[in-house]
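Quick one: Cell filamentation protein Fic from Azospirillum doebereinerae, structure tokens please.
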Amino acid sequence: MPLLDEIADKKHALDGARPLPQDTVHDLADWFEMELTVAAVGVEGVPLKRADVKAVLERGTVLRHRAADEQRFVLNHRGALELMARLSYEPNGVVGERTVAAFHSVLRQGIDEEAGKYRDGPPKDDATGSAPDPAKLRVSMSALSGWLRRAEPAPDTAFEAHHRLMAIRPFHAGNAATALLLCNLMLNRAGYPPVVVRGEDRALYADLVERAWAVGDKTPFRDLMMRFLDQSLDVCLVAAAKGLVEPARVSKDRASDENS
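--- reply ---
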């Protein structure tokens, strides 16, 4: 079965399991917070290990004897995910240029004086010198904003939004993490879980993102993102099955106790 059909079937199964038990919702939220933050740290080249990310998230504050900005990025990403969650429940709200700037502003607050502001030079990750001219950023972002307002929420829309933002790379740093936040917001609004860039796929992801905007070949990038989406749906379905089975078992055990 083609992956697109599998994703449609899994989405249908997940919709059928909704509403999920609150415990399951909280467990999934915690899992995605951790995995999405580890992914953001990875794609942005922040030198923190998974254990460091876990420690910062659990403490909810910057730890002593470690680089403050790196830890602040973790806490900021949590704030950006909270913003994404709020916007996900506003299906009629406009997603556009201001949304992108808001994500970046939260993500880079306290780290970058230009948080939420467009770059006036090449982005930090522009090794080849191929990034668009800063003078054209406002026109490019306005065009992206117009496209986002017209686009229907769907996986392909989410992946195209990621591609278009990475082709522009409007900020000095934090473009990839911001693009993933935008992508996942669009997925959430369409009723899908967010995609996670796992460590073993990070290099391939970076290569295909670059290939998409450098030579215009977006198909491999789309296929990879579809695979990520399929993996996230699997995580949700496993959690849903566990959450639906356990309450039923508890009820059965309770009824047995009452009849004994």
